[in-house]
Amino acid sequence: MPAVTSTPAAQSVEFFSADEVRELLSFETAINALEVALRDGLSPESDGPRLFADAPNGEFLLMPAQSGTFSGVKALTIAPENPERGLEKIQGLYLLYSSDTLAPIAVMEGSCLTAIRTPSVTLTAVRHLARLAPAGAELGTDPRILVFGAGTQAIEHIRAALVDFPDATFEVIGRRPERVAAMIAELGARAATAGVSVVAPADHDGAVSAADIIILTTTSTSPVFDGSLVGANAIVAATGTHGLDAREVDDALVRRADVVVEGRGSARRENGNLATTYDDAAWESAPPANLQDLVLGNFTRTSDRPAFYTGVGMSWEDLVCASAVYTARTHP
Question: Which of 60, 174, 218, 279 is most open to solvent, judged by the fewest CB atoms within 10 Å of its CB?
């Protein structure tokens, strides 16, 4: 009689729509999850390089990461011409796996995850830079925040900033005034941001000088303002570009600022904001602090110097956020 064999039942794979991701992953939840992961020993320096490949009219981007419980891959497309067509620049999916069996356990809409993850990482950095402000330069709940960019990330960074700065006032600068006006109208129509003060300043240089916090979410390949104008104790966060040939801030700002990066390895490979101020010798002898250093308090801000955080997006951040989404549904 032939031997009887059985095939193990396939594990079900749960799907999370964009609406479900947003419902389960508030900015506060994401920021707290990132902080916990970094405090518990997750090192940004253990993150592997992102994988890029050509795609029609853009690029494919794969971002694998692993942890003891979950592992995952974010599979995205980047279409630089899409915003001009009224479409999303970044689209894709997140695939979550059990680290124990490497069985897939969830698929999540990736654009929404990115839209929450990126500002959550930025505001994690801003939160801790604000807490480490020099004596006499502390921020209240109502700082003046200047945002460069008028796309999805600009909107989401404003929403994320309200977690720690609920009474902040916002100014928005973009290349196209009509897009800035549309963004301000959209924020005013959203329940979460209705009543928040958001305006487009007439004097751009004056807005830079007066801002307590400056957030850059552009796709610029060259600096968007004069770094010498930034206030002595202001916080600047640049997160809109990746690649050594793209940058949002100039050397004048980098040289006069206390600098923090997401991860030293990723910044050295991909961050154009630092490419002309940090050569190989500087990376080896005096590298900047990373996000884990900042969250653990292993960073000192200098009086009368701006603080500058810059990131390009890292795979571990998506895994932390995707894990939080999955856990929120399966272990509420």
Answer: 279
